[in-house]
Amino acid sequence: MIGSELPRFKNRWFGILLVKTDEKEYSLYMSGSIAQWFETGEEVTIEVIGRPREREGETYLLFDDYRLWRTYNGAEIPIWPAFSVEKEVPRLSPLTGEKIYSYSIRAREAIYEKDYEAIAELEQYHYASQKELVALWRCEKCGEILEANAKPICPECDTDENVHILEIKGSTPASRFLMIELVKREEFEPEYVAYVRVDPPVPKMHRRLPDGSLTKDIREKVFPEDWFHPVYHPEELFKKRLSELRERYAGKVALRRLWDEVKWEALHETNTAVSRIARVVVHPDYRSDGLGKLAVQMAIMWVNERRIPEMRREKQLIETIAQMARYNPFFEKVGFKYVWDTASGRPVLYYPLTEAAKGYLKAFLEKDPVAREHGGKLCLPSYGKVEPLEEPIKFEDVFMVFENELDVEGLPEELKELLEAFGVRSRVIQRQVLRNVDVEILPGEIVVIIGASGAGKTTFLRLILGACAGASGIQYRPTMGRVKAPENAKIGALIPGEMEPEFGDESILEHIYHKMGNLRAAVEVLNRCGLSDAVLYRARYSELSTGQKERARLASLLAEKPNLLLIDEFAAHLDALTAMRIARRLSSLIRESGMTAVIVTHRKEIINALAPDKILFVGYGTVKESSMS
C-alpha cells in the first residue's frame, strides 16, 4: 500500500487504494467504507482479473477488475470483491399458504451510492431511531447540506442532479452496512428489503445489577481485556488534542479540523476481536417472512469471514445492545445469549464465534449468581398459567330446536303478492339444530368445530356459554338434555356481532396493558396475535384494518386470561399465511397456559396449524367426534 484517496463527501461509496507491485503501480477503485481501513505500508495481495486501464499515466482497475486480500498476522483476509452471498427463500401464497416459487435473497455489503439511499429510506422504519429526518445530503454544485429521508431537491439549484448522500445519522465512520435485496422479484416488490449495520463494540460498558449497584468495565472482567481494545473512540482522542489545536486555530475552526483528524486516526487505531450489530431494519411488508432472522444470520457470516468492520483481527464475539430484545426473542432465535444490563438498563446479548468465546460465555452464565438465574435467556414467556377447568364440559342427550313463525301480515302489498306466488302465507318453522348430542370436552383440550353454514356450530358455542356463564336467552339453553360445566370456568368468547370485546379511544397497547397489568405480558399477547409491529401498538382500534381488528379482538380476549376460550369463525378475515401463523402461536399459548379452547373454523390450513386434540363435525342435528391422533 502506498496511499489512498477518499473524497470527503463521497467517502462512503467511493475510494481509491494505491498499491505498488514489483512491476508497476495500480489505482484500485472500491468503496470508501472499505478503503478507509487501510494504511500506507501494509501488505496486500491483488489478483488482476480484468484489463488494466490507462489514463494520464495512471493504471487503474475498476470494481470488477481485481481481487484483493489483506495480509494480517499471517492470515490472508478476503477484502474485494465485497462480501456477497445468495440464499433461496420459498415464497408462499397468501391465499393457500402453499409454495408458489422460490425467490433469491442476496446479502451484500453496501458499496454503491444507491445502497446508502436505500438505507436512508429503510431507516425510517426503525422505531428506535430518535430522528425524523435520518440522512444528510450535499449538493456538490453549491455545497448546500440538506436533511431528508429521500433524495431532496437543492433549494439553491432547484434540482437534485448534483445532490449526493453524505451520511446516515447515528452511524459513525466505522459503521459497515449489509444490504438484503431481492434478486428475483415481482414488479410490485422492492429491491431492498432490509439492512444490518455493524460497528466496533461500544467504547465502555458497565453492568447494572438487580440491586442497582454497578460493576465497572464488566466485559474486561469476563472476557480477555484486549478483545475490546483498541476500539473506535474518536471522542477520547478529541479530548486529548483539543487544547493543543486551540492554540493554533480559533475555537470553531479548531473543533471542525480536530474532528476531521481524529475520526480518521481512530479508524487506524481500532482493532478489536468483537463486532457489534447496531441496527437491524426490515421493510414492514417482509417482517413476517423471517427476513430479520435471515439478515442477522448473514451478518454473522459476514463478520466471521471478513472480520468486519476493521478486517484485521479474528473476531471472537458479536455484541448487540437492544431494548427491544426484552419483548421479542429476535436475537435469541439466532443464538445470541443474554448476559447483563448496561448501566443505563439496556440488555446486552452475545453471539460466540469461536470455541474460546463459547468457553468464556459458558463459564460466566454458570458461575455468575445473577446470570445463573436467567441462564442466558432474556425474553421469557410471561403470560403464565391459568387455573385449569376443574372438570370436563359435558353435553348429555342435548336437543336444540328453533321455532320461527312466518306470515305476510304487515308487508307492503307488492311483497305480499310476490311471497304468496311462492305459496308463502303463514307457517311455523321448527328446525332441530342439535339432536341427541353426547360430547365431552376435557380440560386443556383444543377442540375444533366444523360444519356447513347454519349447521349449528354457533349454537354449540352458545350452549357452552349458557352453561358456563349463565347467559340469558333461549338460544343459550338446550330444549332438552343438559350441558354440565365446571364452576370455575372463566370464559373468553368471541362470537362476531353478538359477543365481542369493547374498545375505547385508547391505543391497542394501553387496552391490553390495562387488562393485564404487565407490560411484557401485554407485548407477548400482541405478538402472538400477529400485532408485532410497534406502530400498531400505539394505534387505536378504529384505525386498524379489518384483519388487524380481528387480531386485536383475539388479543383482548387473551388479555383477560380465561381458562375457557370460545371463538366463532376464527381468522375469518385473515389471509392463509397470517391465519396459520396466528393459529400456531395461539395453539402454543393455549397449551402452555393450561387453557381449554373450542374454536369454530372451516379452513383446513387453520385446523392443521391449531393441531387440535379432536374435531367435532356438526351437521343435520348430529355432532360426530374425530380424534386427531
How many H/I helical runs?
17
CA-based shape: elongated
- In the predicted model, the low-confidence regions spanning at least 5 consecutive residues are none
Strand content: 25-35%
- Class by helix and strand content? alpha+beta
Radius of gyration: 32 Å
End-to-end separation? 69 Å
In short:
The protein is α+β, with helices and mostly antiparallel strands.
Polypeptide structure, described:
This protein has 629 residues and is α+β, with helices and mostly antiparallel strands. It has 17 helices and 30 strands. A hairpin with a 5-residue loop joins strand 11 (135-139) and strand 12. It is elongated.
Keywords:
alpha+beta; 28% helix; 629 residues; single chain
